[in-house]
Design a protein that fits this description.
It contains three helices and 68 strands. It has 835 residues and is mostly beta strands. The strands form 18 sheets. Strands 11, 12, 13, 14 and 15 form a five-stranded antiparallel sheet that branches. The N terminus is likely disordered.
């Protein structure tokens, strides 16, 4: 926790208060003085989803879903291809129990309201600059903790964004009124009470009444008589009621407007669009049926279609719903506790509902929450197993061919009960899923794969969706292509044909005495007319700013111009090149006699020799940063060399009195295998309005990675630096891109990725075998990948599920797993399954 570089989101309460609410004090001074509370932060956030909220939080017409993972909220955004992209994830230091989105009249962005265990209502607004939700209001109304009578379990926002009701399981309900001040800032009123003693709340929704006084509907159970009856007979007679609470905006108070008895088995309310979009009112879901109810309106009831062969005495409940509302049309998608989806429409005339039409739609996993996006997707936050994102193939639902009419005689009356036969998906197409371990029934931590780092073997899920999952520490890596080579290559590079091209044109592979060039297209094929020297080992390949290709080999520099002319440079005195540093307009080479030659592209695009600085001692590594936008050169050159000890120097490349002078130096504990001078954001990325920091990475021979901050003006190295042991091999560093931002790939006995994700700097291992050399790779099939060398193979890899600490492999199980055990002396598991 002390290593967090981004402050957590205080939506619930300060860490000490949240810890006091969710766990015991870790230590307390004698005499009842000041107390210390501890709060845990997990390596990986919970994958279970408690509740969701859908809206436009970051920008207009940007359809996003906010997920509550208990104490973490996450915002995801499905892209055009249907892949769920995580936008931000934040620790809340509290248990988020309910979410609701609301929008002030005339606005184009949504706010987020949270109900938590903090005894407060939190109003948040997304900040694009900081890529996180920021608190707008935090109003206290009760004690912390998940208590029966402290609101937070239920949350309902008025469709017009004027008010919100936060309710407890029992008795208490508060209404807050939203408005704007003179500066168009969101204001929140004092809480207005809508309490009712001896009452249990089962569901709370906001009724769509247009711009009339806001109305909130609740399912309530009055237990006053049952509580006072010592015989227990009154419990059987206790009934539920549907109650309307009206917020009078003129008088600024809440009144109990209407109450009507409903079925004792009622469990959920669903608001029906009103104003100009529909007839208003609510649907009351109960066992085996749903009913439309509205004040001064006759009830309209329909039976829930049942699966063929389902016993008639087995009750059927609706557990979740989603609403799609368009300009002149709406429908509601309901889900039963068995996972079946139903499409519900209302037949109405002048706000008078005459019929509820309910059709079988499709069958998916049982959901904790359903969200229909206006972009044509359905998000299913599964109760057990992976969450799913589906694309609508049709919104018309089934036809009469799915319906099976069954006549049943009940108490002398014949009733037609609709049935259907479940079928494979017809109206939905699965396009993406999100890994979820919920629930973990049993787990073992063992190193059965012999990877030195233990794996976690977890039994997850319920029923036929159960899995045995293997969790490994590291980023998931997918192999896009693997190709065997005749012998082990020493290095690989990718290069574009010109600066205007988006994708790489060539893959250049270097061997001990030769170089081959592969052309990237629909297929990867070897070419011989690229202009590269094929009879020597290659030290570096790059694209210069004038669209010429640069190849550096031990005996010289070969420059291939865009018109296919070739220029050669040979080091003086038959010198041999050992190290190279290059960017768009600058080239520095180190010879084996420990001399350095520095070149720049001049105005005529000629590679002009600028300096030959002398460096004492053996040169082990060197690098320079890419030229910043709007600049013609990098300001610094980093050199790692040996004097009396290993040392890294920063030299100035700026013309003037300090040209090629040492600006700063730092002693190293071992020989630098490679250096990497690059700008990486440690907070919000530059595309989100943040700034980058110039870092010098040093990969040492003892397997340690050093990161030192560099002053971008003076070139001074920061006195404090970070070190991390990566593996037993010398660390090689390579510049790559992650989500369009600079990143560093560090290769040792294990591969590591240093990158910025959601405003946080991360150093994460890759869950893959040992790699020896790498370069960034871009093509139409793999817009952001890495081409690398492993043994005698050339591989193209892509990193998946950035930000996650563990990657998973799963194996399907038939029934709910209960327990697992490892057979001694083997790698075989015994799993007990039962349903």
């Amino acid at each position: 926790p002390a290593a967090r570089e981004t402050p957590p989101l205080p939506v619930a309460s300060p860490p000490s208060q949240a810890a006091a609410a969710t766990g015991p004090a870790a230590g307390r001074r004698k005499g009842g003085a000041a107390a210390m509370f501890l709060y845990n932060l997990t390596l990986q956030k919970s994958s279970a989803i408690v509740c969701t909220a859908y809206g436009n939080f970051s920008a207009p017409k940007m359809h996003e879903i906010v997920l509550s993972h208990g104490k973490v909220i996450e915002m995801i955004r499905p892209d055009a291809a249907g892949k769920s992209q995580s936008v931000c994830s934040m620790e809340c230091f509290g248990i988020v129990r309910s979410l609701a989105a609301f929008r002030l009249p005339g606005a184009n962005l949504d706010y987020l309201v949270l109900g938590s265990d903090s005894g407060r209502v939190s109003v948040l607004e997304y900040s694009k600059e900081r890529n996180q939700f920021e608190r707008v209001h935090l109003e206290t109304f009760g004690k912390s903790g998940c208590r029966r009578i402290v609101p937070g379990q239920f949350l309902a926002a008025d469709p017009k964004g004027r008010a919100v009701m936060v309710a407890a399981v029992e008795k208490q309900k508060f209404v807050y009124v939203f408005n704007r001040d003179a500066g168009s800032n969101l204001t929140i009123s004092s809480p207005l009470e809508a309490h009712k003693g001896n009452t249990i709340n089962f569901s709370v929704v906001a009724v769509d009444v247009g711009f009339e006084n806001p109305i909130f509907a609740c399912i309530e159970l009055d237990y006053a008589e049952a509580d006072a009856d010592p015989t227990g007979e009154a419990v059987q007679e206790a009934s539920k009621s549907l109650t309307y609470y009206e917020l009078d905006l003129g008088l600024n108070h809440v009144v109990r407007k209407w109450s009507d008895p409903i079925d004792p088995a009622s469990n959920m309310l669903i608001p029906v669009p009103g104003d100009t979009d529909g007839p208003s009112g609510v649907l009351v879901c109960a066992e085996n049926k749903i009913a439309y109810k509205k004040q001064d309106h006759e009830d309209v009831v329909t039976l829930i279609p049942r699966r063929e062969g389902m016993p008639l005495d087995q009750p059927l409940l609706i557990t979740s719903y989603a609403l799609l509302k368009q300009k002149d049309y709406f429908f509601i998608l309901l889900q039963s506790e068995q996972g079946d989806l139903y499409r519900v429409t209302l037949s109405y005339q002048d706000d008078e509902v005459s019929e509820i039409k309910m059709q079988y739609f499709d069958t998916v996993s049982v959901a904790q929450s359903l969200v229909i996006l206006k972009t044509g997707f359905l998000f299913v936050a599964s109760e057990f197993g992976n969450h799913a994102l589906y694309q609508f193939l049709s919104i018309k639902g089934g036809d009469d061919t799915d319906l099976i009419r069954v006549n049943v005689e009940i108490e002398g009356e014949t009733i037609e009960i609709p049935h259907f036969k479940p079928r494979p998906l017809k109206n939905l197409l699965l396009v993406d899923d999100m890994d979820s371990l919920s629930p973990i029934v049993d787990a073992k931590v063992l190193d059965l794969a012999g990877e030195e780092t233990p794996q976690i073997y977890a039994l997850c899920g319920r029923g036929p969706r159960s899995t045995l999952r293997t969790l490994r520490h590291g980023l998931a890596v997918s192999e896009m292509a693997v190709s065997e080579l005749p012998t082990n290559p020493g290095a690989v590079w990718t290069v574009r044909g010109s600066a205007k091209e988006e994708f790489d044109k060539y893959i250049v592979v270097s061997f001990t005495n030769a170089t081959i060039v592969l052309s990237i297209g629909e297929t990867v094929e070897e070419v011989t007319d690229s202009g590269f020297l094929a009879t020597a080992v290659t030290l570096s390949v790059s694209l210069l700013g004038d669209d010429s290709l640069l190849q550096v080999h031990p005996h010289g520099i070969r420059r291939i111009r865009s018109d296919r002319r070739i220029n050669e440079f040979t080091p003086p005195n038959k010198g041999v090149i050992s190290k190279v540093a290059v960017n768009q307009r600058q080239v520095a080479i180190a010879l084996r006699d420990n001399s350095i030659i520095y070149f720049e592209l001049d105005q005529a695009n000629q590679l002009e020799e600028k300096a030959k600085p002398s460096v004492q001692g053996q040169i082990a590594a060197m690098d320079m940063c890419a030229a910043s936008e709007g600049r013609s050169r990098s300001k610094f050159l980093a050199i790692g060399s040996f004097e009396s000890s290993w040392i890294v120097r920063v030299l100035s490349l700026e013309p003037g009195p300090n040209f090629m002078q040492v600006l700063s130096r730092q002693a190293l504990p071992d020989r630098p295998e490679s250096l990497c001078l690059t700008e990486i954001a440690t907070g919000a990325s530059s595309k989100d309005g943040g700034s980058s920091t110039l870092f010098l990475y040093a990969g040492l021979a003892n397997g340690v990675l050093m990161r030192i901050a560099v002053d971008p003006v003076t070139g001074q190295l920061a006195p404090d630096f970070r070190t991390r042991f990566l593996g037993t091999r010398p660390v090689k560093l390579f510049k790559v891109e992650v989500q369009g931002q600079p990143a560093v790939l560090a290769l040792s006995s294990r591969s590591w990725l240093c990158y910025n994700y959601q405003g946080r700097y991360q150093v994460t291992p890759m869950s893959y075998e040992t790699l020896e050399y790498a370069s960034s790779f871009k093509s139409e099939a793999c817009p952001e990948g890495v081409v690398c060398v492993a043994g005698n193979t050339l591989r193209i890899l892509a990193m998946e599920r950035l930000g996650e600490v563990f990657n998973q492999q799963s194996m399907r199980l038939t029934y709910t797993p209960r327990k697992c055990a490892l057979i001694k002396g083997s790698t075989n598991f015994v799993i007990v399954e039962a349903d």
